[in-house]
Amino acid sequence: MKQRTITAVFFAAAMIGGIYGGVWPFFFLFLFIAAGSLWEFHGLLLPKDEPNFTMKRLLGVKQGVLALLMVVFYRFPELFSSGILQGWLTEWPFLLTFLMGIALLFELFGTSKTPFQNFGYYAAGIFYIALPVAMLYDVASLADYHPNRVMGIFWLIWTNDTMAYLIGSRIGRTKLFERISPNKTWEGTLGGAVCTVLMAWLLSAYVPDFSAAQWLAVGAMVGIFGTLGDLVESMLKRSVGVKDSGNLLPGHGGLLDRFDSFLFVLGFVWVVVRMVG
Questions:
Q1: Three-state secondary structure call for residue 181
Q2: Cβ neighbour number for residue 101 with a 10 Å cutoff
Q3: In a domain, 14, yes or no
Q4: 187 and 138 in one domain?
Q5: pLDDT (tens digit, 9 = 90+) per residue, 171-191?
Q6: Which one of 54, 159, 249, 260 counts the least CB within 10 Å of its CB?
Q7: What is the DSSP string of 226-261?
């Protein structure tokens, strides 16, 4: 319990400092979270008995991080130096295709019995982890950074998780998805979602970084897809027979364990923020 508390304090301090420390601390904080989550993701899925397991795990991390950087450099070119680098990065779809070709060549000259399965893991890491973080950078608007948007999304996720647990533990009777998570109930899930939308309405009154309609839309997305994101990561861990995605955070598991809902919900948040004025 003591170790868990100490980890939670340092984790909260790092998150608050990174988010409110300015655009560059925020940028590097979530770049680290993306890289660490990719490391755990590929450690769970890539066959551990293969030669070059660590190299392939690193390749998956590098593919995801480079894909993330390409999208961010393309979306916010004004933050980065002009010239040859910027010119190359504006062609990010072609560079990403080139990187995936490199991954295929790595598998071609390797000795894996499942090369295309491994290649699928590399691609899945990009879409499951790297691109959602790129969407977060876009929602926060790196060129005109809005830290309250990021903290607001976290606050809504914490509201959803906490209220779903409290309501579900008191009145929960109907199992939501017993095959994946036997403790989650419909009562807790719906109660958490309603409380999350109410919290979004409260944020709209005091935090003008989003419009009221955007805050409510974000709250709805978190209430619906936050729980589903947790279930998706639980499905991943059950499929490989592990309890935690990693051990970077003693007493709390790995980065994926802490950011599963957050990563999953970012794509839906990005869509509604753009659609709702």
A1: strand
A2: 10
A3: no
A4: no
A5: 988 888 888 888 899 999 999
A6: 54
A7: HHHHHHHHHHHHHHHT-S-S-SSBTTTB-HHHHHHH
What is d(CA 179, CA 258) in angstroms, rounded to the nearest whole number?
21
Rounded Cα gap, residues 18 and 45, in angstroms: 30
Please give the residue range of the domain that contains residue 94.
23-144
For 191-214, the pLDDT digits (tens) are 999 999 999 999 999 999 999 999
Which residue do the tokens 């403790």 mark?
Answer: 183
**Could you say which DSSP state residue 129 is in?**
I
> Is residue 1, in this structure, part of any structural domain at all?
no
Run of H or E including 264: helix 255-275
What is the residue type of 133? V
Per-residue pLDDT tens over the stretch 126-149 = 999 999 999 999 999 988 999 999
- 240 neighbors 14 (Cβ within 8 angstroms): no
pLDDT digits (tens, 9 = 90+) for 60-104: 998 899 889 888 887 887 776 555 555 555 666 777 777 788 888
Contact by Cβ (8 Å): 255, 196: no
Q: Are residues 110 and 161 in the same domain?
A: no
The one-letter code for the residue type at 155 is W
pLDDT of residue 87: 56
Query: How many structural domains are present in the chain?
Result: 2
pTM: 0.92
Q: Which of 60, 193, 199 is nearest to 124 (CA)?
A: 60
**Domain annotation covers residue 16:** no
Give the SS3 label for residue 176.
strand
Q: Looking at the structure, do residues 107 and 156 belong to the same domain, yes or no? A: no
What torsion do the CA atoms of 7, 184, 158, 4 make, to the nearest 10 degrees? -10
